[in-house]
Amino acid sequence: KQNDAFASAMQNGTTREIQDADAAFHNRILEIAGNQYLTDFSETLFLHVQRIEHTYFQKQSESAGLVQAHQ
Fold first, then answer.
1. pLDDT at residue 6, as a whole number
2. Half-sphere exposure of 54 toward its Cβ, with a 13 Å CA cutoff?
3. Cα–Cα distance between 59 and 61 in angstroms, integer?
4. pLDDT, tens digit, 9 for 90 and up, residues 35-53
5. What would the pLDDT profile of 4-34 be if each residue is shown by its tens digit?
6. Coil, strand or helix: which one is 1?
7. Could you say which DSSP state residue 64 is in?
8. Residue 68 to residues 3, 4, 35, 39, 71, Cα–Cα distance (Å)
9. Is-above-0.70 flag for pTM?
10. Alpha carbon of 2 to those of 37, 42, 48, 67: distances in Å?
11. What does the alpha-carbon distance between residue 15 and residue 37 come to, in Å, rounded to a whole number?
12. CB-CB neighbours of 18 under 10 Å
């Protein structure tokens, strides 16, 4: 389960591991959607979002609700 990997990263991982697990979760949704335009657009968007995520995930105590939000 993608969410299990994300939950584990939130508890025990580095910021990079959290970001990777989050990206894997969202990439799986895009894969299921099967929309190449959406996938291409999201890849470009994710490049810009990575900096913001790094700061956000460093504050893990403020991110506790994220695991539940990914259910």
1. 78
2. 7
3. 6
4. 999 999 998 888 888 777 7
5. 887 888 787 777 888 888 888 888 999 999 9
6. coil
7. T
8. 9, 11, 26, 24, 5
9. no
10. 23, 18, 22, 11
11. 29
12. 24
